[in-house]
Amino acid sequence: MKNINTFSSIPRDKAYYIVGFADGEGSFNTSFRVRSDYLLGWKITPVFNISQKERTILALIKHYLKCGTIRFRNDGVWAYQVENRAALQSIIIPFFKKFRFLSEKKKKDFQRFQNILEILDHHPSTTYNDLERIVVLLDEIESKSARKYTNQEILQRAKDFWEKNSEKIEKLNSSQKI
Q1: For the chain: N or C, fewer Cβ within 10 A?
Q2: What is the pTM of this model?
Q3: What span, in angstroms and rounded, lies between the C-alpha atoms of 154 and 68?
Q4: What CATH number is attached to the domain comprising 166?
């Protein structure tokens, strides 16, 4: 993934427009998808998202940030999303570190999101303790939409998989230190 650490190609007025728009309409979240082929039973996907009725604004944001996808949702709203971890780490995080949010809520959500990415990137396979920490951080991120799975469901499934796969996870993590 191309690292855009200076963002010099983005006009300052557009950069601050993007930050202001994301401050009001954006969210940092993490999705959980049931996956029996994953060692903890979950595919964990951090996501930066902006939803809007107007596609044009989202296309402008995607053009300047040079990552992500735009899709039309069933509820009649367009969504710009960045799920790719490399793009999150090399573009989204540095962009919002350089052009900072003004609202305290978004600043805190952004910090928690960075912490989630750090946990997921700490070693090759997520441990049960990692997942517990992620769930706690997610509870602190205010979301407008309810999550599909409760914390109890997420943790119980992960615990069941951890009991079966903990040795494999620990071995994988110790042999492939990041």
Answers
A1: C
A2: 0.90
A3: 27
A4: 3.10.28.10
